[in-house]
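S.,

Sequence below, as promised.
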Amino acid sequence: MRIDDRVIDEIRDNASISKVIGHYIPIVKKGHNYVALCPFHDDHDPSLSISEEKQIYKCFVCGKGGNVFNFVMDFTKCTFPEAVAKVAEIIGRPLDIDVSSKKKPQKRYQKYHDLLRDAISFLSYALNTYEGKDAKDYLLKRGLDKDVVDHFDIGYDPRGDKLFRYLKGKGYEDREIEATNVGALGDYGPYDIFQNRIVFPIHDLDGDPIAFSARALDTSQVAKYINTKETVIYHKGEVVYNYHRAKDDAKKADRIIVCEGVMDVIALWRADIKNVVATLGTSLTKEQLKIIGRTTSHIVFFYDGDRAGRNATMKAVEMALAAGYDPYVIVNDTDKDPDEIINTNKAKVLRDMVSKEISGIEYAFSYYKSVYPFHSYSNRKAYMQRLSTLIMRIRDDYDRENFLHELTSITGLPLASEKRPKVSYNKKDVFVKREDLSGLEKAEYTILKMMMDSKVAVDIYRKELGCLFSEEAQKVAEAIISEYRRHGDLKSARLLDEMNDEHSKDLLLKVEMSETISGNFKEDIFQGAIDRIKLEINRAHLDELERKIKNADEQKRDAYLKEYTALIKELGGLRNGRDQD
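The prediction came back faster than expected:
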């Protein structure tokens, strides 16, 4: 269904671009604007500039830019109506119409998702049969009652390869069952991979099943837990367990807790903590971090307190800092994981533990003390170098300076100022150096930017100039004039939606986001820019006249010479203190 233009305008005008972009990626406030690591290319310094005043954004490296709708469309790969609906939801003004496609396109391996969904149904049923009694009793003993079992779709794969036979009866082929790794063909026929195990389904970001994690009931089993092996729909390093359930709670809380395994997530859910996911192992990957960071920049790591868990926590903190997030840690100084804590000490202890998170840098101060004990200068120096590198990645200026001061106090060593790492979040360093404009471009940018700021500038432009030197700049000028005619004012975010030419949109964004061109209308500066354009136009006209004079007959030559002389006089006047080169 088409969305009314007035509704689109209302949503765009009431949407804070920093809030919308910040809903998807971490952003940092700098002055009146914001900066961020651009999600549309491999960015290591904040290349994305966000103007709250103009309600637009622009990356000066990859060129991506636009308004709130453009960002959502590019980031989530959705249509314009879907982007409008998503923005409306973020600002608390949900649409009461369906903007989704009439028929949701099926995934490439939809058959495998369907197969796993049928498998979950069978495994859930089997848990409640006589054969599943031991599994059900075990779950109850661990505190996993019916509500938990139903919420997480927990099931049981009975003995006798019954899941394989069930799926065959549903019409699935052997190769499809093998491809999803729920069954296989052996020397003695088909068999279930997770036979006599409690199974926990794993889903993708959309909530479609892709794999299982399975716990053995038989204590003689060598592996207590086994997971689905890598398949065409399951790549462990790219999967975040429970993300599809936790993402909304994480966005509301502006905080997401990252654990190691399935039972950790379930334990926290039992303690009424819903914004929790797991990496299904202790080693966080960059792909998983990107997924987790879609919900919030406030990422809290809650790993086991053993040596492997501590090492994994520090590695995750460093990875999150390097990617521009705000990492925090729940210090687990017990010998128990969250599941054991809730079963021995009840939910309150676990909730208290979660409420006492510390910053990732505070954790690093403690962690590296054990790595570099202060019994020698070389260790103190190594500690200083390691911590100073991490601290310089902190986005908050106040926190960064405080932690640097604490570091020098602890080590007794001064920070080597000549080797002090440069803070990447310096907007001027990022953008001004990338903007190298010629005198003519500066004049055109000045005219366009001041026209966007003032109708007086538009009137002067139409009266004294009427055209710009470059074709793209001329198109933008015409769009600005048209915008004032239609609406009586100009809003850059609205104008972007009304422009069709992508090159013109790109130029508009460059002009609006330029750090070297003032947008406040000043008549003397505006007039100087107009004179600079006139000068360039007349120069081009002189070149054309020179060509005509050389090739014209005597009668036409005289006329061209008169015109040439008049232009020379006009050029002299324009050069008199007004040339911007």
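The chain has five domains: 5-90, 110-234, 238-363, 372-425, 435-578.

Coffee later?
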